[in-house]
Structure formats: C-alpha cells, structure tokens
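With this grant's support, the team has encoded backbone shapes as discrete tokens. A representative record is reproduced below.
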Amino acid sequence: MGTVVLSGAVVLVVLGFGNPLYWLAAAGVLFLYVRYGLDTSAPPAPGPAPTAGTAPTSYKAYRDRRDKQAKWERRYRRERPLESRRQERERSK
C-alpha cells in the first residue's frame, strides 16, 4: 500500500507544476498516510490462526485450520439442511 500512496503523491507533485493545488493534495495524501496508514509499529494480531490470505507456517497450523473449517462446515450443514442441499445441487450442475 505504501508504494501506491507514494507513487500517487509523486504523480500529484508532477501534476503540481501546472496547478499548485495538486501539491496541496499530495501533501494531504502523505499526511494522511503517515498519520493513519503507516502502522508498522503495531504488534501482530494475537491468536494462533493466520488470516485467510496467508499460508500457514507449519503443517500443524494447516491441519488445525483445516479441521476447524471442516467443523464449521459440518455445523452449517447440520443447522441449515435445506440451504446446504441447494448449494450441493448448484455445485453438481
């Protein structure tokens, strides 16, 4: 995200040679990024489960996540049998 913000600020600075209002916009973007977007000092989120987009770091973490997902899927099928049957029919088409 930092590269997108920085490249956008550079574009605004370059455009600012024609219209100085873009320089103010670039300064505002950089200020907001430094103030709210730059969060590298924050500690990592607690909890053993990785986020959905990241790969597990070990086979045990993968297995735990897979077992937890299977448990939730079984619970969903048990609590919503009609919906799960409809989804199965749609998948089989």
The two ends are 40 Å apart (CA to CA). The longest helix spans residues 59-79. The helical segments are 2-15, 21-37, 59-79, 81-92.
